[in-house]
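note to self — DONT lose this again. spent like an hour looking for the file last time. sequence + predicted structure for the chain T wanted, 331 res
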Amino acid sequence: MTVIAFPNPRPARVAGQKGEAMDVILHLGAHRCATTTFQHYMRQNAERLARDGTGFWGPHRTRTGLFRGILPGPSIATGRDPRRRAVGRVRLNLTRSALSGTRRLVVSEENMLGSTRENLRQAALYPSAGERLARYGQAFDGQVTDVLLNIRSQDLWWASALGYGLARGFGLPSRVALDRIARNPRGWRDVITDVACALPGVRIWVLPFEIFAGRPEAQLAAVTGRPAPREHSREHLNAVPRLPALRQILPPQLAARLPEGDGRWTPFAPDQVAALREAYADDLMWLAAGADGLAWLVEDLNKKSVGKTPPTPDLTRGRRNDQDRRMAGAG
């Protein structure tokens, strides 16, 4: 059964079968899925979790040099191979964590998947996820045992991403740009398939935002199978500004083009919203049907969904299982 009802115990660990001393759990987010809230929760509870054998690497560590060189990019000509140095740096830190008594290491970094900027430029969900995660998998020397991925209804995910971009100077999207997003066939199924291809043998846990948003302790317990502290679990961070705040941020000529009201900014037309919700319904149906054996969908039957609930998928429908859509990094 691939739909796991939290808080039921998870299946026997692959790591235990391999005899590995430390589980390595990559928390990939995604962006705009309460990832910053999860990272804040983990950092605030780091000492308490460490006593239970759970270690944590978050952006305060991954973005201060630990991952520098894993992905290709500009570098200072020193005659040294930056990727080789990055791999050595990651593996050294893994060894130190294991020797310190860490039994499970949670590495939370949504930029491993890609960036919001890239998604907005390409009008696609994480088009380079496969290539990027293959490089991270090599850096972790095959020690990754689990991946935790949060997904969200595409109409709300893209609205949040566009709001993020708007607050950072991206400007208002045109109708053509919005239609390009709404009609792009790439969905969460493709992202999950890319992750599975890039990290073969790794167990992928998919936690819907509509169920687990703002509940970092539930996410942690679901993937580790351990009790999680509730302290700092309701401190929500990095929400996209609502319409009144956006009007304060934007230049007057752009602010005047925003709709009236005090709620969240919803840039899509009704037909575009319908297309995005249909895509999410297809993704959920694929996950509930087994995800081709690639992933586990985690649900909490005692928790009502939050926010707008996507329409119930018609279980007689589904996307065609195109072979080329299963390739890592497919866009």
